Structures are given as structure tokens and as C-alpha cells.
Amino acid sequence: MSNMITIGDVPGGGPAQMDLGELLATRLLVQGNSGSGKSHLLRRLLEQSARLVQQAIIDPEGDFVSLAEKFGHLVIDGAEYSEMELHAAGERMRLHRASVVLNLEGLDADQQMKWAAAFLGGMFEVPREYWYPVLVVVDEAQLFAPAAAGEVSDEARRASLGAMTNLMCRGRKRGLAGVIATQRLAKLAKNVAAEASNFLMGRTFLDIDMARAADLLGMERRQAEAFRDLARGTFVALGPALCRRPVSVRIGAVETESRSAGPVLAPFEPPSAPVHDLILAPLTTFEVASRPAKIAAAPPPDLLSSLAAHGEAQQQAAARTEPEQEETPESQQEREARMMAVLREMLESAENTFRPAPVLYQDFLVRCRIAGLGRNALDLKRFNRALATARSGVSEDMSVTPEWQEAQSLAQALPEDVQSVFLCLARAAIARQPCPADAEIARVYGTVSQGRARRVLEWLEDRNIIVLRKDGVERRILTVIGPGWETLPGEA
């Protein structure tokens, strides 16, 4: 079976083909202003590959539901299902190898982000034996992986951005090939866009977007003006699945139609009757009765109550599906030791050193499920404490000492992003080791900047948590205020 599909033609150069097998390994980014033909391109790609690979489409506007009529995609209306149901649907679509269109039309931005994150999370967490290739197309990707915080809640943004980062960064090993389309590269999170190796750049007018598109395609800045002159449906292609040098591609015709086609210009005929009588006529009795009275919006639910109800529902669901088993103190300690082992194994990977905590949390939950520790191994707050402990480098023997328990109690009063640094310093002081160097503190803090590491030390000293001093040869000594733990002299 051939892996090549035809997406259009090169003006004056024959058909433009795409290597589907290479695309599954390298991912694709499509960019173009509104009206440039992005949705048409995605529809052509989906139609040509529908019978070759399983597909999952995150559709915020309901443009792709017509694929179901010709190619048998299952259309899931996001407004009719809960977040947990969509998470399960993401798992089951991979178990049964069914192509799905997730229609998020009619939901507000906050719900769209949460629902998409749940669906992608379910696809990501299936067991290894179901890691079949899936083409995951996300239209309007800037909605789900925004470069900056907007009007949506932080919870929805973190969940959606974490799921999109997983798709583009770690999806390849799980058979997930991300195809993301955006109106503006400047609105898309850089860590999501940077993982694509294939590019189709359409018409764009803003200087910043043209410059970024030219950089991604390896073009000179003076050539970036060419993106303004591209016709609708014409894209500049580059990538291992497309071509080795930038080439203009005119996208071919499609077999299905979008429900949200653009407006069609028609002759304008003014009304024959007087406009005043048509527009401002008094309401009839039937119209008054048929118009619903305006109901005041209900106040938003209390966040703590919602979280408590959600946690209780999850516990009840787990109790219905899992046999009751009394957990002894010994088994609880063993379970926590296994979770810490999973966390330490994660941090041994260099690529996880500088990843944000929400992304690491998603990875941790997946690994715990694979290890048989269940879906809800730790909540996010307990995970952050465990992550700070693991990053500090404490040994298992020291972690059970009274001194370390006191250090953890002191750390709980600090902001979460500083706790790992404090525990690293406390660990060195308790063990009477040399004061950690700036490079080590920066790594524990999750950065490569030693200047930021020094600023964290200054912040801790300004708040009377630690004291820094130097010996006769300018080596740094650190003392923890209160317990009085002190390191040996570190490097100058």
C-alpha cells in the first residue's frame, strides 16, 4: 500500500504529494490568515488519508462533521457529554480504531479547552498495545495552545496547553501525529509550534507572522513579503513529508462541503414596503408570548464546592468499578515508595528537567497507570510536594529522618516554585555537604539561568530563611535559620 497522497499541484511542476508515513513521524503546522484556505487544506488532507489511517479531529466550529457522511467518521457533539465522558471516548476510539470528529461548536472558550484536553488525554493514556497510528488534526490551534493568558481560566488553559504539548512533543511514540492549523503564529505557544517539522504557510499580512513564517521555512527576511501575494488556497510547503526546499502548492478540490462556508455576494434589492413600518412595527400578542423573558444569569458555582463534588463523584465511580480492598499502613508506604520511584525515573530524563509542573503531572499520571497504581495516584498539590522532594536529591535514608521532616514543614510555608530549591539547600546542610553551586540550584529550579538561581537565593535571604557568608577564600557557606543546619564551603 502506497503512503503517498496528493494534496494538490505545484504550479507548472506536476502534482504535490505528501508522504503519509513521514507525516506520522514528523507532524505538520499550517498557518494562514482567515480566508487563506486552511480549512480547505485540512479537508483535502483528511479526505485523501481517510482510508489509510485512523483520524481524530478537534473541530471548534463544526466545519468537518460532513466527513461522517462519506467516510464514516463518528461525530461527537461536545455539548452533550461531560468532561469525564470525553476522556473515556478518547480512550475507546483508540481501542476500537474508529475515526472521530469532536464537534465543540456552541461551547464557550473555557469549555472548549477543557473538553479538548480531556479527549486528547484519553487518547494519550491508552495501554501500549493500542498505540496504533492516528492523525490528530486540531483546527484553530491557537484557541487550545495560546501563547499568552486570555479571558479563560488558568485551569482550562493549563490543561489544554499541557494536552497540546503532549500531543506535539511526546505523541509520536504513542502513534499520535499532530496536524495543527492556526491563523497567526504569534498567537500559538512556541513550544507547540516548534515541534512540527513540516510546514504549509498560507497568505498572511502582519510583519511579525511573515517574519516567523520565513524563519521556519529557512527563507531570507526580504523574501517574507511573498506571503502577502499568495492566492487563496495556495501555500508554501517545506518538510520531510513534503519537499526539501520551499515550494508553492495549490491545494486540490475536495469531495465534501463545509457547513460554515463564507458569505456569497448576491444582488441587493431594497424592500418595497416602507422600512419604518417593517422594522419598528408594534409587537403582536403572539410575538410577545413567544419571546422568553430575560432570566438573570445564575451566579458561578463555588469552586471549592465544585471540586469537592467532583472528587466525591470520582470516588463513588471508583468504588462501583473496583473491588473494596482495605489498605494497610505497610501497603500505603509501599505504594508511596513506588510513586516516588516513578517520579525519580521521570526526572532522570534530561528532557523533563525544564518542563513545567502541569506537563510533568500528566506524564506522571500516565506512568502510574502503566505501573498499575491507578488513575488518581496523586492530586496536583501532593504531586507538587513530591516533585519538590524528588528534585532536591534527597536519599531514601535521609527522607525518614526527623531533620528532613522538619525541613519539609518549613518548605510548606514557601511558594511552590521555591520549595524544591529550599529542600535542595536543606538537604546539603543536613548532610554537611558543600553548598550547592549556582548551576545545580538553577537545574533544581527548572532553568538554565544561573542569574535566576542567584536571585532565588537572594529572595530566601531577604525573608530570613537562609544566611549566606563566605570563608577566607571566597567559598560560599549557607546556614538555614532556625534549625541552624550549615553546609560546608562550596565553590567560589
Describe this structure in words.
Helix 4 packs parallel to helix 5 (109-124), helix 15 runs antiparallel to helix 16 (416-430) and helix 17 crosses helix 18. Residues 322-330 have low confidence and may be disordered. The chain is built from 18 helices and 13 strands. The protein has helices at 20-26, 38-49, 67-71, 83-95, 109-124, 154-170, 190-193, 207-216, 275-279, 285-290, 303-321, 329-347, 357-370, 380-392, 402-411, 416-430, 438-445, 450-462; strands at 4-10, 14-19, 28-31, 54-59, 74-77, 100-103, 134-138, 176-182, 198-201, 234-239, 243-251, 466-470, 476-480. The protein folds into three domains: 4-251, Rossmann fold, CATH 3.40.50.300; 329-378, no CATH class; 395-492, Winged helix-like DNA-binding domain superfamily/Winged helix DNA-binding domain (Arc Repressor Mutant, subunit A). It has 492 residues and is an alpha/beta fold. The longest helix has 19 residues, at 303-321. The strands form two sheets. The chain has an eleven-stranded mixed β-sheet with strand order 2-1-11-10-9-3-8-7-4-6-5. Keywords: ATP-binding, Nucleotide-binding. Residues 310-320 have a biased composition (Low complexity).
